[in-house]
Amino acid sequence: MTTQCQHCPLHRKNLFKTMSREELEFMQKFKVGELTVEPGTPILMEGSNAPQMYTALSGLGIRDTSLKNGERQVISFVFPGDFIGLQAAVLGEMGHSIEARTHMRLCVFDRSEFWHFFRTHPSRAFDVTWLAAVEEHFLGEALATLGQRSAIQAISWALVRVYQRGLSLGLVTQSQMAFPFTQRDLADALGLSLVHTNKTLAKLKDRQLASWNDGILKVHDLETLAEIGITSVDTPMERPLM
Question: Is the overall model pTM greater than 0.70, yes or no?
């Protein structure tokens, strides 16, 4: 059954701003359905001009882009509550691909109604702008990581960011969360070789700071991990939900 916006399970998460009744009613009209995808299913393809945009209702995915020589760069991981497809809505085509890595459920929005959305609900349009600004901020931080953090600093930074997002979404139980990606994914996100990534993760495990095995991420000392990653453990900002 399609989830009604007023009963959306993500609204119960402290990470997301509370919507007014009017906003919920509008979003219910804007939403055209739901899509369920299996692990490994492409959701949006680089270069495509997709007619839909999505909000991840549940499950995890990955954003990446490929070069002509076959190399790829992982841009980010997709979490519940993420709004995807905005790039095609504004620029006409996707500059990266998005793939499900777990069973995912997506709220579907019709891109043809996007400009009507902006004209009639400026406060919600500002929310979209805010989400784009947050994404830009994250990409700036990721670029600084690629250029200036060492391998152990970069991996520590990444694990802190992932774990904090998991905490804010209630995905962490007894200091562990499902993280169904591969070491290759992490290496491609941070510009590291697979061997270097593996050895660095082993060092963090030996120091009893964090471990990642069989799709389960365990963080034993978040403060120290953040210190190594030259970052901080902050309460995530409350964010709008599309």
Answer: yes
